Amino acid sequence: MRNILYGFGPVVLLAAALGAYALVLPACAALPIFGQFWRGYCPAAAAPPGTQALEREVQRRRALEAEIRVLEREVAGLGPCPVQQAPPQVAPQTPPQTPPQTPPQASIDRERWQNQDITLMQGCWVLDSDLQLQDARTKRPLPVSTWKVCFGADGTGQQTLAFTNGMQCSSGVKATFNSAENLVLDDQADVGCTHGYRILRRITSCRLNSENKAICVGKDSSGGVSNMQLRRAG
């Protein structure tokens, strides 16, 4: 009996040691028994590849979201952004259009003149030369600065004269052709002027020269003579 107990002693001691070892190991520990493993122990599985990288991205996203919330609070404290107004559009200024100037007629239509067509004179005419009249009392010359006469289709017109001394005169005038194919300008009466003056009635006869320009000689009722040249006003 003692031999049997003695023979089982090592077995009992081994079993006790294994039981104590099992108590120390985790509940799922693999225990080698007689060359085989006890399948009750399952070691913790290693983290799958990429888990750590994913965790880092999650942490980064959370940090960015926190930064966005901070920026939103800062922007909210600034108030609304000012509206940029476009500068007013200024229309380009168009320079005024200057009407084309009609060049003065250098010559007179000789055929119409010879046919005594009085409508040839329709429009306005001005001096194309110097002109001076004479004071009937003092015989002093009176230079004319401007003279202009405008005719209708029937030859009836109105004339205005300005002198270098400031005197101005105006009156009616009549244009006709005579038998010698000369144009006759008749004041028909004395011409009233400022400064208490008047121009004695003049009858002026005009002819065409070789350049088809009107060369005129005027004579007043006292015998005074004046010479001038006319051209159509530009």
Shape: rod-shaped
| Total count of helical runs of at least 4 residues | 3
Report low-confidence residues grouped into runs of 5 or more: 1-8, 10-41
Question: How much strand content do the residues show?
Answer: 25-35%
Task: Report the sheet with the most strands, covering strand number, pairing sense and barrel closure.
Answer: 8 strands, antiparallel, barrel
Radius of gyration: 64 Å
Give the H and E element order.
HEEHHEEEEEEEEEEE
Distance between the termini: 164 Å
Q: Which structural category do the helix and sheet elements fall into? A: alpha+beta
> Reading side by side through the largest sheet, how are the strands ordered?
3-5-6-7-8-11-12-13
- Please tell me the overall pLDDT: 77
CATH superfamily of the domain at 110-232: Quinohemoprotein amine dehydrogenase alpha subunit, domain 2
Q: What CATH architecture label of the domain at 110-232 applies?
A: Beta Barrel
Helical content class: 10-25%
* Name of the CATH first level of the domain at 110-232: Mainly Beta
The fold-level CATH name of the domain at 110-232 is Lipocalin
Number of strand elements: 13
